[in-house]
Design goal:
Radius of gyration: 16 Å
Strand content: 5-15%
Number of helices: 6
């Protein structure tokens, strides 16, 4: 997720600007003219079964009603350049200017921070933000040990569910790294991310019977901090 800046955990201001596709205030002006309907929004609801709901700051996303207003046909793979708690902290920070839809921990635990309905500022490209789901992964691009079997398996289940929901194939045209997004200067997920392994796991998941729809957590059950 970038180099640490003075007094800021895990991210530089430059990283925030690229993730959001511009200064947060400018993004809000560009996106704010269209208001999304309030239907299909319930406290604690998640799109991926078993995910932990940890709401990102509204400043780091734009409310929408995808795929009705913007078709979804991409997953963008990111690497945090830090730990899971750091990712949750900065995506809840309104001054950060960016957030991903999901963060996957090394042990496979998944947090959802932005509803798939909404446009998260994660790709550094407005068109890609509107058409994609962003998945961050705990770890560092230059440390192959960051990418554990549990992380690969969990992320593959998540991505397979997204492919099913929006009807696009699990291939390298539709599953891309942040480094492949036009106009960005990022290198994640980096040379140690095993695309062949990942695509194989996603396709294996797609051959399985679909899982039941995720249950909605009651408001009193929603965790705001990761379990120990």
């Amino acid at each position: 997720m970038g180099k640490k800046g003075p007094g800021r955990p895990g991210i530089s201001r430059r990283r925030a600007l690229w993730l959001g596709g511009g200064v947060a205030a400018a993004g809000a002006m560009a996106y704010g003219a269209r208001r999304a309907p309030d239907r299909d929004r319930r406290d604690g609801e998640v799109d991926h079964r078993g995910a932990q709901w940890v709401e990102a700051s509204p400043a780091n996303l734009r409310r929408a009603h995808r795929p009705a207003d913007y078709p979804i046909d991409r997953v963008v793979i990111h690497v945090v350049q830090g730990g899971f708690p750091v990712a949750l902290q900065v995506f809840q920070d309104p001054s950060h200017g960016a957030a991903a839809h999901y963060v996957v921990r090394k042990d496979g635990h998944v947090a959802q921070l932005v509803r798939e309905l909404d446009v998260a500022y994660h790709a550094g490209n407005r068109r890609y933000n509107e058409r994609s789901i962003g998945i961050e992964h705990e770890g560092y691009v230059d440390r192959p040990e960051s990418f554990t079997p549990a992380m690969y398996a969990s992320s593959a289940r998540l991505t397979a569910g997204i492919c099913r929901r929006y009807g696009f194939p699990a291939d390298r045209e539709h599953l891309v790294g942040h480094t492949e997004v036009p106009g960005t200067d990022h290198t994640d997920p980096g040379p140690h991310w095993d695309w062949d392994r990942y695509l194989g796991l996603v396709r294996e998941e797609l051959r399985r019977a679909p899982s039941p729809s995720p249950r909605t957590s009651r408001p009193g059950e929603v965790r705001q901090k990761p379990p120990s």
